[in-house]
Every structure is written in structure tokens, then in C-alpha cells.
Amino acid sequence: MDDKKVSRREFLAKTSAAASVTAGATHVHSHEAADDVQSEYSLRARALVSVLTKKNLIDPATLDQVVDYYETKVGPHIGARLVARSWLDPDFKDRLVADAGAAAAELGISGTLSSEFRAVANEPGVHNLVVCTLCSCYPWPLLGLPPTWYKDTAYRAKAVIDPRGVLREFGLTLDDDVEVRVWDSTAEVRYMVIPERPDHTNGLSEEALAALVTRDAMIGAERVPEPVQR
Amino acid sequence: MNGIHDLGGMDGFRLKERDPDEPLFKHEWERLVFGSYLALKAPWSIDESRYGVERIPPERYLTMPYYARWLYRNEQLLIKYGLVTAAELADAEAVPAVAPRAPGDRDASRLLSGMIVQADTTGVMPSFAVGDRVLVKNEHPEGHTRAPRYVRGRQGVVQRDQGVHVFPDTNAMGLGHKPQHCYSVRFNATELWGERANPRDRVYVDLFDDYLEPAP
Question: What is the chain B residue with the closest CA to A99?
Fold first, then answer.
């Protein structure tokens, strides 16, 4: 996107003028090209931000800060720290499973006060998979914002009825005698998966272990890859 | 409501590929929609905001990108609460700027939590205990609900008491918090999906007290 070459602040400064010229024409027509759709969303988003700013309902600096927070501060590296610690410290793992928000707070991770967080552990014979069939609930403070595939209709539809088929498409074929536990995030409880520690990781530091842990493994969509594969 | 958002168990969709390196926002407008929504001191609850997405006409819901659903919802809620008008959104240039106030709360980690109401737990007793067999009532409210269709009329076992929470069904509709216990209920996959499921598999769903009755 050319948009990205413009700084957010410059972009915001240009929004009112751009929005006013064209916003009247943004009500839906049949769009044939994806570009037209993107441009309609873009115009409506700019108009929205412009009106909210002019009416003092938002502070553009707060908007910048919010986006920056989720783009640079919060992300799967946080959950990966929890997982790596749990691999090295069984007592910590017990606390993580009992109350993931409190265990995260031990490591100075904030933002876990509003909802409850649960970590569910994979083990030999048990594989966990997290979904939100009704919307896109996800443990933001621990894993950041969810990936596109997680928010998409197909995953939300299939994960509960055919979790093994989903995992197979994702490249993980489970034996029939493995128990699959699917967690549908339908209330204010947020789930993450503690994946199994890969073999051949003896002697690795907590940081080195954390670097192995992938976002998708903490949703249950894959196993943590062996270090040699990376 | 029995809306298009209640997708669990539907066939025919194609999974999106997993991209470990995708950007959080693919387009600048997605950043604006996300950032402006969280920067707003919204007068509505997170339950009402979810209900706002659920009411997107189904044929549009399925083809909208994720943040386009947010955009639609944000516009509708802002108009409903009288914070902006459709005319202002259609002609942003004509809106006069008011004098800026002092900056608001900029602690980004707290902006979302402001939307989640903490329940008053005083005197709220659980109707069920861990291990109880429960039946999800076969109810189809026209308003917001967090009991997905695929568990209604099905039996499960209370696996954990998740504590007292605001009841989304009433809170989303402006009918009060109605705080109550919420439970992690474990269903056998075969109870939900019959012979198609592997008999070993389980589905755990967080369900509120009002959705449940003792299994017969």
C-alpha cells in the first residue's frame, strides 16, 4: 500500500479534505474491483476519524499511541515468555494453568486485569485448540492481535466440528487416540495453549526457548518446531 | 439472535492460509478504524459492540473484511448514541472543529479494559457446581446472546466455575448487568456432532447460568 509510506500523522492531517470531497459518494454500489472496495473503506475510515477528531471525541495522539502499542509492544513474544518459563519451571507452569493472568503479572506483564486468562497445556495424548466461533475473542495482552486466519469465517466454522481436519490442513496430523480439546471463547475468559516442548532443546536458555515458540502454536494450530528445522 | 456470526459447525468455507509474517494491519484504513475505536471513550459496553457486528446484514457480513465490520459497527453505534450524524460522516469537511480539550487517557493497555464492566458479585450464588451435568436450554432470543446454536439442547458437564460476570444478553440490550456465574462446560464432540466426531474429542464452551438447567 502506498498509504504506508505516508506517516500516520501526515495521513491524518490530510483526511478531512479528502473525506469531504468524496465521502458523499461512498454509499455502496456494486464494486467489481477490490481496489474500489478498499478505497470506499479508506474514505469512510478517514471521514470517521476526521469527524471524531473535529468533535473532540478522540485525540489523534491517542489513536497513534493505541496503534503503536499493538504494533510494537504487545505480541506473541509475551506468551512465548510464559511458555518458555513454564517449560523450565514446573511450579510456574502450575500457576500459569491455574490463573494465567496472575502468572503473567508475576513477570511484569500488564493488561490482564479486565478479563480472565487460562492457559491449557498440551501433553502426550492431549491437543488443545482455541477458537471464538461467535466473533474474534483472543488473549490480546498475552498474544497481541489475532491473525487473519483465526478471525476468518472458515476457521470459526470448522474448528468446533472438525478440529482434526483443520489441523491436518494446517500440516499437523494427529493420531486417532489423541484427545482434541477445543476451547470456544464465548465469554470473558481468554485462552492460550501451552505447547509441548520440542525434543533436542536441552540446555537452551529461557530466551532461546521463547524464541522457538510460535504464535500459532499458542493457539494450538501447530507444534513448536524443533530448533534444527529453523 | 440466530445471526450469520454464529458460525460454529458450518461447512463449505475454505480456511485461509496461515502467514506467520503478515502485518497486523494490511491497509492504513484498518489502522484508523482500530485506533479510533480504542481511542474513543465509548458510552456502550463490549457486549453492545459485539451485538453491533452481529446485526450487519448477513450477505454483507460474509464478504466484509474484518475491520470493515468494525467500521460499520462503529458508524452505527456512534450514530445511535448521537455522537455523530450520518450527515456529518457524509460531509466531514462541513463539520466545524471545536477547541481541543486536554488529552485523555493514553494508557493503551487500559483503553480496552474500560469497555469491560466488572460485575458486582455481591450475593450472586452459582446454580451449578463442578461435575454437574447440565442441559443448554433450547432458546432462541432475538437479541444478543453468547450461547452458540451448536450447543443449544445439548448436554455437558460443568468443568470449572469461571466466577461472576455481567450477563451479555441483557447488558448488550441496555437491560442491566444481571451478574451471574459463568461456567466452562465440557461437551463430548459426539453429543454435538454425532458420528462425524471422534469419540475422544471434547469441546469446552463458556456458558452463563441463565443458559443452563440441570440435565434430566
Answer: B162
